[in-house]
Amino acid sequence: AQRVTQPEKLLSVFKGAPVELKCNYSYSGSPELFWYVQYSRQRLQLLLRHISRESIKGFTADLNKGETSFHLKKPFAQEEDSAMYYCALRWRTGNQFYFGTGTSLTVIP
Amino acid sequence: ETGVTQSPTHLIKTRGQQVTLRCSSQSGHNTVSWYQQALGQGPQFIFQYYREEENGRGNFPPRFSGLQFPNYSSELNVNALELDDSALYLCASNTGGEETQYFGPGTRLLVL
Question: B106 near B5, Cβ under 8 Å?
Fold first, then answer.
């Protein structure tokens, strides 16, 4: 069963425009959710996690348990934000991570 | 502090063969996870090792097996290769109590 869904495979926004990358999950219990990013020719790396409630590179993500969502948002997109973004859920039992299929974000200058 | 390294970077095998992929964890990390990433998909969890013991397994058949060594380096072995095994194989390491995983660059496997 798909535990993490990212409905958009491709997303393009203009520089300076707001951006939202969607992530929905299915999990019974208290989830731990993460956003990972992969820039061109770089390895996958952690962007942020919901437990920290932090803002990284201007990105934030709020866990909405009612809507089972963990959307990634940034008010003003920058060209350097162009990358592949993966939402991931950590299954507490066994410390397993489940990744979505990813959204490729392109910020148009 | 060194990052996660993987070898080889890419290789080509034929159906039915066996392959061993290697991962060197980041210094101080005792947990390693392996993922398969098919083209256009997100990473799929294969299994995890913690202090040389398997600590969780995804929905992969037994012909996918692993090892973790005392120095916390790791191997992924795949027997009886199938065409669908063609993918990027990622390993990621972390300390046991830390959620943040550090990924290697991956090994790209092509099965013909």
Answer: no
What digits encode the pLDDT tens for the residues B10-27?
999 999 999 999 999 988
Q: Exposed, middle or buried, A102 (CB in 10 Å: 0-12/13-18/19+)? A: buried
- Return the pLDDT at B71: 86
Q: State whether B103 and A102 contact (CB < 8 Å).
A: no
**Contact at CB, B99 and A43, closer than 8 angstroms:** no
Q: Is B99 in Cβ contact with A90 (below 8 Å)? A: yes
Query: B57 to chain A: which residues are within 8 Å by CB?
Result: 94
Residue in chain B nearest A51 by alpha carbon: B99
Comparing CA positions, the residue from B11, B21, B81 lying closest to residue B47 is B21
Kindly tell me if the per-residue pLDDT of A80 is higher than 90: yes
Q: How far is CA B76 from CA A45, A61, A79, B33, B49, in A?
A: 21, 34, 37, 10, 11
A42: CB partners within 8 A, 6+ apart: none
Tokens 């063969």 sit on residue? B17
| Residue B41: Cβ-neighbour burial (10 angstroms; 0-12, 13-18, 19+) | middle
Kindly determine whether residue B48 and residue A43, on different chains, have CB atoms separated by under 8 Å: no
Instruction: In whole angstroms, give the CA distance from residue A81 to residue B20.
Output: 35
In the structure, what pLDDT confidence band is assigned to residue A14 with cuts at 50, 70 and 90?
Answer: very high
